[in-house]
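Blinded run. Sample ID left blank on purpose so nobody reads anything into the name before looking at the predicted structure. Input follows.
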Amino acid sequence: MRQEKKILLGLAAAIAALTGVAVVRWLGGAPLGVDSAVYRAGALAVLRGQPLYEPLLALDPKSALELPFTYPPSAALLFLPLAVLPGHFAWLLLAVGSVLALWSVTRRFACERPLLTLCLLPVLEPVWRMISLGQINGVLMAMVVLDALPVRNRRSAGVLIGLAAAVKLTPLIFVPYLFLTGRRAEAWRALATFLGASAAGALILPGDSIRYWTSAMLDNRNAGTVDWVLDQSLHGMFARLGATSLGWYAAFAALCLLAGALLVREFHRRGDPRAALLVTAGCGLLVSPLSWTHHWIWAVPLIGLLSGRRAALMCAGAVFSGTALAVVPEGGHRELSWNPVETVFGNAYVLSALAVGAVLTVRMLVRGRLARPARRVQ
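Blinded prediction complete.
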């Protein structure tokens, strides 16, 4: 009871601090929340009948540097509540939602020492970067976790994953997870929700929908930043290594997906759905064409899962503190001239995920081989 009280006080203090930041920045006229400003500008474009995939006219250049709207039209419809708020309070809404979402996820993963896990979260680079940008990744992660690890059976299971995918396409990776774990009805429900939301976007915003699904979704505007250190994906790592051909990326992505599918089935067979879900999330981050460091917010449930293993917890905390990424030269394509040590540090998230995945896969294969009954000698 005392621990729960401390946790609630900590959450209240965090929300109060975020509110103070928003109010002070609002009174001072200083911009706040790069990505939340883009979400709000997209919603305002819908209300004003302006194109989504042209320069956003409602975007304040001081706060978001003319960033494009890179989400499906259905996402702009879901962002409409942000349009009625001043930009600073749109950021505050997402920041508070992220804090509550992170606690919701932590409760399901940190069976041991949840208070210690909660105290570690502000140290994680994906957490503070997500909140400072006003990103929605934490809320989307909580939606996936609530669907994938329900406290009780729900007839609507799968809907939240479908809605998350309607905001960002990357949560679609959890549909195969549902199929692999035998939850076919939930998988079909997630797909139906995603397709329904996309259809609603097409009906309400037909021009933007045609533009998104035929060209904007594949727009190469981020190609110049693929080698930036903050893109912690396989694609980004190979770009920093100078491998401009997509062959290496495609081959490693296919291998990761295959190993990930085997591990998901194995963890499901062993009755460990949390590990199976984290494997799926890790695969999605690795194979995505772009995985900015704030997309690695799945470090939060990982920290929770490891809360009872001190050595593993320390290692994960060290990796996702972002210290390794902060000490390497970055920006202006300086990543292309890294030495071997800088290459290891600058790809810390990717290499750590690959190393853990390789160890888990080898252990799974060895266990499977040892579990086979020996053939009788005739």
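Unblinding after everyone has recorded impressions. The two ends are 65 Å apart (CA to CA).
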